[in-house]
Amino acid sequence: MKHYAVIVAGGKGSRMKSDLPKQFLLLLDAPILMHTLERFALAVDDITLIVVLPEQEQQTWRNLCMQMGFDLPHTVVTGGATRYDSVKNGLDACEDEGLVAIHDGVRPLVSEELIVHCFEAAKEHGSALPIVPVTQSLRKVEGDRSTAMLREGVVEVQTPQCFQLATLKPCYKGEAQDSFTDDATVFEAHGHSVHLVEGEPTNLKITTQADLKIAEAILGMARG
User: Fold this and answer.
1) For residue 87, which of 58, 51, 119 has the smallest C-alpha distance?
2) Which positions ≥6 away from 158 have C-beta within 8 Å?
3) Cβ atoms of 140 and 164 closer than 8 Å
4) In Å, how far from its chain's centre is CA 218?
5) Nearest residue to 105 (alpha-carbon basis) of 64, 66, 166, 164
6) At what angle do helices 58-68 and 32-43 cross, to 10 degrees?
7) Measured CA angle at 9 (ends 34, 216), to 5 deg
8) Are 82 and 44 a contacting pair, CB within 8 Å?
9) Interstrand relation of 127-133 and 196-198 (parallel, antiparallel or unpaired)
10) Helix (H, G, I), strand (E, B) or coil at 53
């Protein structure tokens, strides 16, 4: 069965206080996005890698690949106005059969084991959504009032979110809705159920300088 990874990399560096988009920032010895692509290439032989980037950032990416000698085969697809549109463009570059993982470009610490597990679960169940329990105390804020929320049964959603292409691609034929917060919500809106799998606490989405420092520490420890 053919395997694809659609890596969505349309973020900006605003919360990083950086002019450079966060997916291009260095994580130890290479840009974040390169680490992410390498994880999928190591996890699955002959995987087709598709990177979704805004058109204005594609030359920067090509320059980085040349400077770093990064020659891992991948296809660059132009992103859309929203994440929904970007994922749709990435899916259009996939065949109609096989398995696809949709992943945040700034989650470079995803393990090869989790990638393989998500693909296997999607092959068996039609989809796979990695989750981790929420461990922090929660409050719901409404205006100037707040109330405590029970965290029992509340989980944090991660990527890669994996699906069978024959089922997922038709879900992206329509228009985006406000309720579409990720690929799983698009999938569910078309009458499909989502299969949950255990995610990883270290599968961080890097959005701030603090996240980058944590990722550097985790990656440094993993390398010994």
Assistant:
1) 51
2) 107, 130, 131, 132, 199, 200, 203, 205
3) no
4) 19
5) 64
6) 70
7) 45
8) no
9) parallel
10) strand
Which residue stretches of the chain are H helix? Answer: 32-43, 58-68, 83-92, 112-125, 165-168, 183-189, 209-223
Q: Could you give all domains of the chain from N- to C-terminal order, each with its CATH number? A: 3-223 (3.90.550.10)
Q: Please report, as a single letter, which amino acid is at residue 175.
A: E
The reported pTM is 0.94
Both tokens assigned to 155: 């989980």
148 token code pair:
């405590």
> Chunked in runs of 10, what are the mean pLDDT values of the chain (224 residues)?
95 64 95 98 98 96 97 97 95 97 98 98 98 93 92 93 98 90 96 97 95 95 84
For residue 49, what are the CA distances in angstroms to 4, 35, 45, 116? 6, 13, 11, 15
The two tokens of residue 86 are 């970007």
Residue type, 206: I
User: Tokens standing for 107?
Assistant: 């989650």
Cβ neighbours of 175 (radius 10 Å) = 7
pLDDT at 11: 64
- Provide the CA 153 distance to its chain's centre, in angstroms: 23
Query: Residue 17 — left, alpha, or beta (φ > 0 → left; ψ -120 to 50 → alpha)?
Result: left
